[in-house]
Amino acid sequence: MVKQIAVIKGDGIGPEIIAEAIKVLEAVADKFGHSFEYNYVLLGGTAIDQEGTPLPAETIKACKRADAVLLGAVGGPKWDFGPGHMRPEAGLLGIRKELGLFANIRPVKLFNALKDACPLKDPGEIDLVIVRELIGGAYYGERKTYIDEKTAVRTAYDTMAYSDFEIQRVARVAFDLAKKRAAAVGAAESGRPLGVTSVDKANVLDSSRLWREIVAKVRMEDYPNVALSDMLVDNAAMQLIRYPSQFDVIVTENLFGDILSDEASMLTGSLGMLPSASLNESGVGLYEPCHGSAPDIAGRDIANPLAAILSVAMLLEISFNMSREARAVENAVNAVLEQGYRTVDIVFKSEADSNSCEVVKCSEMGDLVAKVIAGNS
Ligand code: IPM
Ligand code: MG
After folding, report:
1. Residue 325: is it exposed, middle or buried by C-beta count within 10 angstroms (0-12/13-18/19+)?
2. Under a CB-based contact definition with an 8 Å cutoff, are residues 69 and 51 in contact?
3. Of 10, 26, 200, 366, which has the fewest beta carbons less than 10 angstroms from its beta carbon?
4. Is the pLDDT of residue 376 over 70?
């Protein structure tokens, strides 16, 4: 199959991890007889430097034309002092909005080989997914910074607004995903609860009260067989650490999802392990690791490319309908971890002390995964 992928390397470690993701895509193409064409476009800091804007029009066009978009990471101290609309993050938020990517799917899975890397003493089985609303709430609401001329007091505000249809569509994504996961696991044989936990702050916020009402309505009307529970966001932040295996699918608004997904990533050992898919109504997706551009380690070939590589697995599965290929990538990542290979962020003291792991560079990690896929590891 021939597929077009718009690729945004981005800033910081973005180019390094994307190089490894492409290596893996090429290994998949060779192995399964596909042809992937890459169209490299600019976004974020590099786009500011080269085009004078964080989101060039050509990037929007290329992403809309592509079958899928693969993104490294954007941002860095170099661009921290510009006005809001000239920061790299504005490019990321802009492309999400332009493509209508309302559902951000962040799977949080603890690989067996990384159990020691998880900060919890007895983590149990952690396999949950955060569905984060991505183009609403405080990120996109009305905002202002102003000064009261009489008192000279400066004030800034951001508004968190949600309309019913925005809640409905992301709730559907969560319920569909829960249904799919229940079918895959076989609800009866799974020891852990299946279903959707909707996270909000309905004891305080109006937008959360509407959120809770609409999520319940969507379930009652269209997903009566999927379990639903509501949880306040402060409680959810605590429960993620106390007892993470109670969760299956979490659905929540943009800002809560941003915070909870970074928190949850640590359960997998490192933010460097967390992939994501951002989807719109027509299934066109943007795939990116959840981590940032990590400017402090950029250019040193020590970043963890696995979140980018696992994002490639999501891309293959969701946008290209290539489940076998996606499994091949996930299994290869698992195999390489089982063999004891680690980037620095996922080496843990017990392993280092017992010499039971081998620390590899970003590029070596990509080579190892690609080699397993090619079948000659
Ligand atoms: C993420 C990131 C972004 C966000 C930043 C870089 C704007 O933290 O994808 O989680 O807040 O959405
Ligand atoms: Mg974030």
Report:
1. buried
2. no
3. 26
4. no
Instruction: State CA 88 to chain mean position distance.
Output: 18
Predicted structure pTM score: 0.94
**Ligand 1 pocket: which of 69, 80, 89, 293 to mutate (most atoms <8 Å of CB)?**
89
Per-residue model confidence as pLDDT tens digits over 348-360: 877 777 778 899 9
Arithmetic mean of pLDDT, 316-343? 97
Q: How many Å lie between the centroid of ligand 1 and the Cα of residue 30? A: 33
Q: What is the reported pLDDT for 190?
A: 56
92 lines ligand 1 (CB under 6 A): yes
**Closest by CA position to 134, among listed 177, 92, 104:** 104
Q: Which atom of ligand 1 is least distant from the CA of 262?
A: 10
Pairing of strands 143-147, 154-158: antiparallel
- Adjacent-strand bridge partners of 70: 7, 287
Which residues are known to be catalytic?
A: 139, 201, 234, 258, 262
Q: How far is the CA of 255 from the centre of ligand 1 (A)?
A: 9
According to DSSP, the β-strands at 127-133 and 103-109 are antiparallel
| Alpha carbons 195 and 174: distance in angstroms, whole number | 9
Q: Which atom of ligand 1 is nearest to the CA of 292?
A: 6
Amino acid at the residue 278: S
* Residue 353 burial (CB count, 10 A): 8
Q: Is the pLDDT of residue 188 over 70?
A: no
Q: What's phi and psi for 112, nearest 5 deg?
A: -55, -45
For 251, which DSSP code?
E
Query: Exposed, middle or buried, 48 (CB in 10 Å: 0-12/13-18/19+)?
Result: buried
CA distances from 350 to 114, 241, 303, 346, 354 (A): 11, 22, 21, 12, 6
